Amino acid sequence: MMTEGKLSANVAEVLAKCPLRGVDFADLRMVSRSGDNITFRDGQLHTACRLVDRGFFLRVCSNGQWACGSTNVVEKLPGLAAELREHAESLTAGNQKSGQKSVRGIPSENSNRPAGDELLRFQDGGGTRFPMKTKVEDLKALDSVFSGDTSIVNYSSSYMDILETRAYVDLFGTAYAYDKSASGLASSFTLSREGKTFSTFFMSGMSSSEELRGLRDELNENLQEARTFLKASDIVSGDYPVVLSPMAAGVFCHESFGHKSEADLMLGDPRMQEEWKIGMEIGSPILSIVDDPLFSDSLGYTPFDDEGTPGCRTHLIEKGILAGRLHSLETAWDLDEAPTGNARGVAYGFEPIVRMTTTYIIPGESSFEDLIRGIKLGVYVKTVKSGSGMSTFTMAPDRCFMIRDGKLAEPVMVSVVSGSVFETLGLIDGISDTLEIFKAPFAGCGKMEQYPLEVGMGGPSIRVSKMRVS
């Protein structure tokens, strides 16, 4: 049982009751999540549900061998600990490296790690504190923007809020707890006129459902802009100078470069380690990219990771030079670099692996008008449906506009924007002086079986002198 009191201390008491004598290391993570999910489809309430979930993830290391397990019943942890200890010891017995201690970055009593802290900011419930009935009423009122418009074939609006609390303790005294809260709206709709259709979306992050009431004008403006795409022509495929909005720049940064910065992807890959040596030039001299787990107004906020490492702002690219990468304790040990606090598990039942937090391009010195002013013929990517890639990236835009003679012009239909990551990083020749980080709690980042992990994305607007558009 867990009692009232300091959260990390309570979790430490649970770990202390586990039979772990003689192991090299053990840690225990608790993850608690709650929140509401409401959806209207074509004006009718489709879903109104509340999620409440709490569980524990226990790791035990004996002579360099890990054994891990999870449960959502606190009383089962001592039994789970005994099973994991026995399993780790059985692995050790058959391993030639039996007897080696504190290998692969595993903390020891002499590791001198920070004791930790309690950073609980949303004890009032954050965005989840309002009644379900109120949220349903507010979403229904906003969703009515779509009703009565004969050009709309179908539409849906979803509201979601979350409150997540994480606590971590280990055998050597590290103990922390923190929470985060976010709310968001996602509306999708399809327009049709004279045989042409256009499917698009509107998304907004917020602090609570109260802000739904102030989004009506913004949603109406979004709908009005969407109608113009019913008359849009397809792009003439070719290479264009391209300006990416903060949203599009965030997707590009995350998908084309961010995953390459996750150090576990290069373990056992000498070629990739050679291609991505710290200190090499990989981008434009005006380009700097960071991963910042301490960005508090972001879903990627991670002041301590799931291995007890304090989060720190990591410079990945600094003025075009590869400056760092993201690490867990193990990858830092393997590559002889410092841990960065980027070991994260998507939920309590998953082991921590190297993940991004809030990754973005550092703002520059140009205004948006400066970025488009010198472009005779180009493309502005305003919103994006998806993106993917490693050496070569592809981006599927939602809304794009032509740039003509230094000004935004007509909407244009674009299927794909693509290019070589190395080439494109070097072709960035303009960065705006503003920063926008998006925090709507929809979708997320996927890696292996762990999806969707909450991350922060966004950035300034950027200009790339040449990208393939089709």
UniProtKB/TrEMBL annotation:
Positions with biased composition (Polar residues): 92-101
Metalloprotease TldD/E C-terminal domain mapped to chain residues: 237-470
Any GO molecular function: metallopeptidase activity
Keywords for this protein: Hydrolase, Metalloprotease, Protease
Keyword hit for Ribonucleoprotein: no
Residues in Metalloprotease TldD/E N-terminal domain copies: 26-80
PANTHER family in UniProt: METALLOPROTEASE SLR0863, UNCHARACTERIZED PROTEIN TLDD AND PMBA
UniProt cross-references to InterPro entries, sorted A to Z: Metalloprtase-TldD/E_C, Metalloprtase-TldD/E_N, Peptidase_U62_metallo, TldD/PmbA_N, TldD/PmbA_sf
Domain of life where this protein originates: Bacteria
GO cellular component labels: cytosol
A Pfam entry, by short name: PmbA_TldD_1st
SUPFAM superfamilies tied to this protein: Putative modulator of DNA gyrase, PmbA/TldD
Protein name: TldD/PmbA family protein
Gene Ontology biological process: proteolysis
Stretches the record annotates as Disordered: 89-117
Family recorded in the similarity comment: Belongs to the peptidase U62 family.
